Amino acid sequence: MLEGSRMNRIIKGRTLLLTQGDITDATTAAIVNAANQHLAGGGGVDGAIHRAGGPTIMAECGRIGGCSTGDAVATGAGNLNVNHVIHAVAPIWRGGQVGEAELLSSAYRRSLETADQLGDGTVTFPSLGTGAYGYPIDQAARIALRTVADYLNGQTQIEEVTFVLFSERDLDTYRQALEELE
């Protein structure tokens, strides 16, 4: 069960939810992993998902081989209580002048497109790119929420998107970005 205080908005009859907790506890149809280009596992969200999901996720990642920055691919979920893990590759922050915003937006959009293709009507995201890749969370939150809101305003079967944030501070940053979005 996800913990923490929650904030939600309805967008064209669909729910966008912010909460604090552990993404590996999600029970949505799909969760998004903050992956690297090699799909090789790592620390943070990526490591937590691989540890909780077990070795079958890594085995599937090995068969896929890799994923470009700004793109997403899906695997099964192993031991997780979801149908799929969507592995999205955010850009490494390099000061904001080499297309990072477009690539971050693309990682979110491609994750949602992948969920749609798989028939997953509920999706849980972490804050992509804001850990080891160094993307400033205030900028990343605005990009993430704008991209998801735009997607939910279009043609999609996705009914609910949840952002599970690691800390109260991160949740507050996303709350503020959501208020600005309106």
Description:
The protein has one domain (6-181): Leucine Aminopeptidase, subunit E, domain 1. The radius of gyration is 15 Å and the shape is globular. The protein has a seven-stranded mixed beta sheet, sandwiched between helices. The chain contains five helices and seven strands, in the order βββααββαβαβα. It is α/β, with parallel strands linked by helices and 182 residues long. The two termini are 28 Å apart. The longest helix has 19 residues, at 100-118.
Report the CATH architecture: 3-Layer(aba) Sandwich
Approximate shape? globular
Question: What is the CATH fold-level name?
Answer: Leucine Aminopeptidase, subunit E, domain 1
Question: Biggest sheet: strands side by side, in what order?
Answer: 1-2-7-6-3-5-4
Give the fraction of residues assigned to helices: 25-40%
